[in-house]
User: What shape does this take?
Amino acid sequence: MKQKNHKWYWLSLLAVIALCAAYVKQRDLEQRFQAYEDGEAAVRDLQVQVEQLEQQVQQGRQRIEDLATDPVEQEAAIRRWSGKLREGEVIYHVEVSPGAEVTLPAPPAGEHGIQTSN
Assistant: This one.
């Protein structure tokens, strides 16, 4: 009789496995799971993008605060937007080809590249 019970057990197990396989195929669970994983990846990408945008917003707020309180930042912003120069100031635009290595010479001893008017 034990032999007969084992036979029913294995047949029942085989039937359950067959039904599970049929259910997976009928409901297209593999494709649904792949779509779920793709959605999760898209959510992670969007979370990274949100973090970057929040960082940009914070930097913008800090810049606004600096413009409101720091006279040096105010002057730099005005000069940047208006294109005006100080008296005796010269701006050099250097174009470097992509991939070229650039080395700048060290300033002479005692000079920091800042001119003051006395």
Notes: The chain has three helices and no strands. Residues 9-82 form one domain. The chain has a mean pLDDT of 84. The helical segments are 2-27, 29-69, 71-82.
